[in-house]
Amino acid sequence: MLSCMGADGKASADTLPTACTLGPDDGAARLRRWSILIEKSPPSTRRDGRMLEIRWQADAGVRDELEALAAAERECCSFASWIVSTDGGDIVLRVAADPTSPDDIAPIAAVFQAA
Questions:
Q1: Where do the DSSP E strands lie in 43-108?
Q2: CB atoms inside a 10 Å sphere around CB 27
């Protein structure tokens, strides 16, 4: 869903790619959940080619919400992998695009303000 956003971060019927299975209202609700998580526990982000890594401190509730959001993203945006893990006490989300389409994660990176 994150990659289903337009450049302004808003979902609309004409910005949702065919690969995304969410409708515009569902997309807005999902983006609100991501925004709440980001506000509650601001992550650090890094993009390297087709890989986006987003790290959160292990604050209360972060892992559960991140797992739920990543599972939901796997269903609607299966063109990218969504893997949640722990690394050095941080909770890490790694989103990877297909090697032949590295720019597929650019809209996702924009939500997290990763260059």
A1: 44-48, 51-57, 80-87, 90-97
A2: 23
